[in-house]
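Is it possible to get an amino acid sequence alongside its tokenized fold?
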Amino acid sequence: MAKGKAKGPKGKKITLKIAKNSIRISYDGGRRLDLSKMGITTFPKCILKLADVDELDLSRNMLKKIPNSIEKFQKLRWLDLHSNQLEELPKTIGTLQNLFYLNICNNKLTTKSLPEELNLLKNLRFLNLGLNCLECIPTSLGALQELKELGLFDNLLTTIPNSVRKLPKLKKLNAERNPFPDSIKKEECVDPIKRIETLYLVQEKDLCCSCLKTCQDEKDKMNKLKNIIPSPSKELSFPLLLTPNSTAKDNQEQW
């Protein structure tokens, strides 16, 4: 019987030739290195020679660690590491100042293994931390002022810091399937964007000429429709008289 420590699965060896042949042109003309679904168990050092790519996809492999040398990819705008076995991230990830997309969903990350340097990614628009083992979210992520979408689903969270929930440009926040206490309303934890989805009626004097004409045309159409198909039980509705800022009154005829 062979002695010694049992070895894990042997992953596919990525050569520089394989890596070069895996470069694709993205929809916006950038260069994307796609090494997803290749059974990789260790970060291929040879791809450091291709560090000028704009996008790097290492998703759906068996990586447990990303080396500090990831800082070589200074042009990187898009980094996909989802569905690996990552237990930690390097602090040097905070040096990737051009990064606007980071997907580290479906790994084995804990709150302690998230480097504080994540808050240095000032241009980050999309961050997916779902399907990990996060017990809480660092309040320092509130420094990501450009963030528009944040995935926190399927973790161990019981609360979300106000600094994160109230990020000024956040449009989507998915925190479903976390053990939040009953006292926390679901809409506050999962979808705080409801704060910008409610409506107000506006007065005629506040409309520009173009908007006023559009509203009047819609009103005329509704009046014609009412004459063709009488429905006295229905109140008139003028959807184009609404602007997305607060709650519309039920009786729009009063306006």
Observations:
- Residues 157 and 253 are 46 Å apart (CA to CA).
- The chain has four helices and ten strands.
- Residues 209-228 form the longest helix (20 residues).
- Residues 189-202, 233-255 have pLDDT under 50 and may be disordered.
